[in-house]
């Protein structure tokens, strides 16, 4: 497996496991690392800072209380962003305060859906992510590297070409072949 994939996730996985095992310092570290970016993310949906803070508080309390029942993750940031997005949209829908909510995004949530149901959804997504990771491991190293730089580091083709010391067309070819393989084997 490409080292880029294994080293990026090990610290998140370990921190998450410590948190799940009741390590309060690990939980506090998760909060301190991610709180500001979650708050900024929440401000895309509402200008009400009190609402954003309440949703963050409720989400973190829920996570702490349910830590024994949630699945592992290789990306704490992704897990928290998805959870928080759902929490804030649910709260906006419940209170009829639309703020900055994109109506198309709000429609995809059922009013009957609760926060716990969403964690089941996230765990299902985690299984899909593991399947994708397994398929990525089957790719040649250069294709893995190109995928990682494009989708995890969010670099454009030009920057990927510079990092990998290849031309833009080669980057495009690596990405195209990798994505075709993933589609075929999904």
Kindly report the name of the CATH homologous superfamily of the largest domain: RNA polymerase sigma factor, region 2, helix turn helix motif
Largest sheet: none
| SS-derived structural category | mainly alpha
Give the N-terminus to C-terminus distance in angstroms. Answer: 19 Å
List unreliable stretches of 5+ residues. Answer: 1-9, 97-113
CATH class of the largest domain: Mainly Alpha
Q: What's the shape?
A: globular
Radius of gyration, taken over Cα atoms and rounded to an integer in Å = 19 Å
Into which percentage range does the β-strand content fall? Answer: under 5%
Secondary-structure element string: HHHHHHHHH
Percent of residues in helical segments? over 70%
CATH architecture of the largest domain: Orthogonal Bundle
Question: Based on DSSP secondary structure assignment, what is the total number of beta strands?
Answer: 0
Mean pLDDT: 81
In total, the number of domains comes to 2
CATH-defined fold name of the largest domain: Rna Polymerase Sigma Factor, Chain: A
DSSP helical segment count: 9
Keywords: Sigma factor, Transcription, Transcription regulation
Domain RNA polymerase sigma factor 70 region 4 type: 131-181
InterPro entries: RNA_pol_sigma-70-like, RNA_pol_sigma-70_dom, RNA_pol_sigma70_r4_t2, RNA_pol_sigma_r2, RNA_pol_sigma_r3/r4-like, WH-like_DNA-bd_sf
Organism: Spirosoma aureum
């Amino acid at each position: 497996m490409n080292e880029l994939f294994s080293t990026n996730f090990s610290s998140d996985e370990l921190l998450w496991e410590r948190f799940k095992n009741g390590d309060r310092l690990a939980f506090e570290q998760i909060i301190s690392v991610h709180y500001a970016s979650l708050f900024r993310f929440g401000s895309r949906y509402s200008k009400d800072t009190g609402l954003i803070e309440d949703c963050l508080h409720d989400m973190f309390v829920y996570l702490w209380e349910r830590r024994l029942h949630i699945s592992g993750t290789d990306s704490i940031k992704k897990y928290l962003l998805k959870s928080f997005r759902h929490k804030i949209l649910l709260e906006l829908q419940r209170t009829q305060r639309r703020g900055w909510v994109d109506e198309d995004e709000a429609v995809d949530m059922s009013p009957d859906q609760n926060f716990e149901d969403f964690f089941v959804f996230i765990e299902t997504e985690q299984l899909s992510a593991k399947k994708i990771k397994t398929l990525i491991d089957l790719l040649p190293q250069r294709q893995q590297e190109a995928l990682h730089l494009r989708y995890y580091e969010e670099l454009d083709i030009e920057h990927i070409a510079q990092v990998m010391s290849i031309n833009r067309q080669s980057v495009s070819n690596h990405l195209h072949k990798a994505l075709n393989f993933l589609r075929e084997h999904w």
